[in-house]
Design goal:
This is Protein kinase domain protein. Keywords: ATP-binding, Kinase, Nucleotide-binding, Transferase. It comes from Microscilla marina ATCC 23134. GO terms for molecular function: ATP binding; protein serine/threonine kinase activity. This protein is α+β, with helices and mostly antiparallel strands and 296 residues long. It has two domains: 9-86, Phosphorylase Kinase, domain 1 (2-Layer Sandwich); 91-281, Transferase(Phosphotransferase) domain 1 (Transferase(Phosphotransferase), domain 1), CATH 1.10.510. 28% of the residues lie in helices and 18% in strands. α3 (105-124) packs antiparallel against α8 (257-265). The radius of gyration is 19 Å and the shape is globular. It starts with 8 loop residues before the first strand and ends in a 15-residue tail after the last strand. Mean pLDDT is 87; it is low at 45-49, 285-289 and 291-296.
């Protein structure tokens, strides 16, 4: 880092690294504002055409309270592209789950509702995140209640307009990837909704729903066996909603995010115990007011 220079910013330390870039905590020289700077790796992962320039073009269109905000972009003196995002203090959702063993149904409903609202925003812009997972969700306590920020759009893509990005190349994390995502089909919003359902269950269980290495995770995702739900949700409206998001066949999965969000807000989780016992059962879908429609 001692040889790295970014105009107008002082780097304070490396905070993370992903497949496409390295993240640094930094401070704006004039304002003193803390920021997160993402610097594209010198040698990106093989078989990927996804670059930081594309990510910043995509993020520039997004403005939502539960999505990390792009503040600036540019190039270092040696022509390496960088992007400046708001700095989000707190912990990742993954860290929060591990610290508490699992989350209560009330907190899960609160945080996952915020995430679903964020998905309504990006899906309305025909953007698919493609790498939703607890590690890419920050939980902050800047006020009276915790709130989330969705991070890392390095694997995100537009679903409509041509971009030059190879959307058929598998992106994302197998443990949270929908079957069709692993098969390399063109991305739709249904990929994110499937991952959202898995993250919801992980909050309640305290552990990933799909376990094992990448190969084992892919085997489980591609299996026709339905994702297990806690027994107590078997006849609850929340269970019905989760089933619609976790259908293995994309054609049977709900594809209207705003419709899912509206149905979600009508669910009363106060009828459930604070800690949901995860005694899984596959069961059969019950009657639900959610009507399957085509994706955005």
């Amino acid at each position: 880092m001692h040889n790295l220079s970014i105009p107008n910013y002082v780097l304070l330390g490396k905070t993370g690294e992903g497949g496409f870039g390295v993240i640094y905590k930094a401070k704006h020289i004039n304002t003193g504002q803390l920021v997160a700077i993402k610097l594209q790796k010198k040698r990106p992962l093989l078989h990927t055409q996804h670059h930081l320039t594309y990510e910043t073009q995509l993020c520039a269109q997004i403005d939502h309270p539960h999505i990390v905000k792009l503040l600036d972009q540019g190039c270092t003196p040696d022509k390496k592209p960088f992007a400046v995002f708001e700095y989000v203090a707190g912990e990742t959702l993954k860290e929060r789950i591990l610290k508490n063993n699992r989350l209560t149904i009330t907190e899960t409903y609160h945080l996952m509702g915020q995430l679903l609202d964020a998905l309504v925003c990006i899906h309305s812009l025909h953007i698919v995140h493609r790498d939703l997972k607890p590690q890419n969700i920050m939980v902050s306590h800047t006020g009276a209640v915790p709130h989330i920020k969705l991070l890392d759009f390095g694997a995100a893509t537009f679903t409509l307009q041509p971009t030059g990005i190879d959307t058929k190349t598998m992106a994302g994390t197998p443990a949270y990837s929908a079957p069709e995502q692993l098969q390399g089909t063109p991305p739709t919003v249904k990929l994110d909704l499937y991952a959202w359902g898995l993250i919801f269950l992980e909050c309640l269980k305290g552990a990933p729903i799909v376990k094992g290495n990448a190969t084992e995770a892919m085997r489980q995702q591609l299996s026709p066996q339905a994702v297990s739900l806690p027994k107590i949700l078997h006849h609850h409206p929340l269970g019905n909603l989760l089933r619609w998001t976790l259908k293995k066949k994309a054609g049977a999965r709900i594809g209207k995010t705003i419709q899912l969000y509206r149905a979600y807000t009508l669910i009363d989780v106060n009828t459930l115990p604070a800690q949901v016992s995860f005694e899984p059962t596959h069961g059969q879908p019950q009657n639900t007011q959610i009507t399957q429609q085509n994706s955005l």
